Amino acid sequence: MIGSAAVLASLAGCGLADTASPVATPAVGLNRARVPLGGPLELTYRFTVAPDAGLFADDYLVFVHFLDADGDLMFTDDHAPPQSTTSWRPGQEISYDRRMVVPVFPYIGEVTVALGLYSATAGDRLPLAGEHLGQRSYEVATLEMVPQSESGFLIYEDGWHAAESVPEEPYREWRWTTGQATISFRNTQTDSTLYLEVDGRPELFESPQILTLSIGDTPVETIELGSAEPSYHIVPVSGASLGGADTATLTLTVDPSFVPSEVTNGANTDGRELGMQVFYAFLEEN
């Protein structure tokens, strides 16, 4: 930083009181106060730059730590803000949204969300305004992690290929469906919500692929797979549509499906029938 908000890097990471002027006030809004293990969480990040802050001399990253009741780190949402900190100006408010999946972590209870700004090159952290937890980490929110509902344990039945990933993002997996795939789960006959992140191949067809979700003979939702990027969907599932059996089966039908070796005239040697990529599926009782 340049000017009155200069960073005293020697204080960062030590136990001394931090007397440096805060460069910004952070805040994080959550879309829910309780989230089940494996469930989705939407976060709104907001930074209000101090009026007397100088210019940021580095592209600082945001660390976001989720701490258990003892203050131990469980998981993170560390990221680069969409607007580089070198472009932040005094008095400006920077706001953006992110979505994450809470890991299936062996913990139930209150979680503290701690945040800060750090330099990946210099290693220093910036002073912020807020409840200081030490080492220039600041409490910005709390939530409660709760167990999954019985219906939250999904079993991938027919029509699925093995999980895949790329070396650049080894923790982001997906599974291809065939033209039709099924997921079964414990039927609690309760109104629920299905969260689904999927990706079709609109560039291969004159008209977008259509995803039809159904339970038995009951249609649940129809989704057009027309985006060039993975799309995220929140689908209400009524308890009545689940029927009376102990187990319910969700059918995902993609029309049309395709075989890569056929649509590329052999340039791609993959001979599998493919429907769509599924990055995330989660069912939660309302």
Tell me what you see in this structure.
The protein has one helix at 260-263, and strands spanning 24-30, 34-36, 40-49, 61-67, 73-76, 93-101, 109-118, 131-134, 137-146, 155-156, 160-166, 169-177, 180-186, 192-199, 209-215, 218-225, 231-237, 247-255, 277-285. By secondary structure, it is mainly β. It folds into two domains: 9-146, Immunoglobulin-like (Sandwich), CATH 2.60.40.1930; 150-285, Sandwich (Jelly Rolls), CATH 2.60.120.200. Strands 2, 4, 5, 7, 8 and 9 form a six-stranded mixed β-sheet that branches. The chain has a five-stranded antiparallel β-sheet with strand order 10-13-18-15-16, with no helix packed on it. A hairpin with a 2-residue loop joins strand 8 and strand 9 (137-146). The longest helix has 4 residues, at 260-263. The chain starts with 23 loop residues before the first strand and ends with a strand.
